[in-house]
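Standup notes
- DV: blocked on the single-chain target, sequence here:
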Amino acid sequence: MYSLILIVLLSYLVGSFPTSIVWGRMTRRVDIREHGSRNAGGTNAFRVFGWQAGLVVGLVDVGKGFLATALLAKIRIDPLTLDHELVQIIAGSSAIIGHIWTVLAKFKGGKGVATAGGMLIAISPWAALVCILIFLATVTTTRYVSVSSIAATSSLPLVLLTLDRVFDNTVSNTFLVSSVFIGGLIAFTHRSNIRRLMQGTENRFRQNPLQEKHDY
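- DV (later): unblocked, structure below
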């Protein structure tokens, strides 16, 4: 029991590391939450600080989910009877929650997509690859990161079922159910984007550096 508590706490803290906020304050002395879409995530880092910053922030956020799922889930200070995959899912989900509601930035973080991607890479690299391709195909055709993120994460249950039934890549019911939860959580974090999409005011993916006029 103590092992699980420690895993959850450490995973949450790792997920809580506010990458884009730290980058903005260290490199530009600004709070990214006051610029662009005002979201503390990789996409807004790209818009505000440029593609290099967006890449670094995105990779670190992916790494948070991977670290929690692949490494922190292995912590044992007392016997733990739960299935290892379930522990991985709990650790990864804790990191995602930490990223979205970070204790280090007044519980206002990013959307959780990159961190969820890191979790998925650790558990099912093939499913992660397919979801990445779905994301890239969608963002290329629509230029909406929000639509692409929702499309990639909401398709995860279908991707897992396909891997299980068609390609004989066994997927547990636990992972399948958790994929539905993750897709729903990511859709929830994009609720303001969904509202703007319905109103026709959602911004398309493009760089919008600090020296230019910002779209809010």
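- Follow-up: The radius of gyration is 17 Å.
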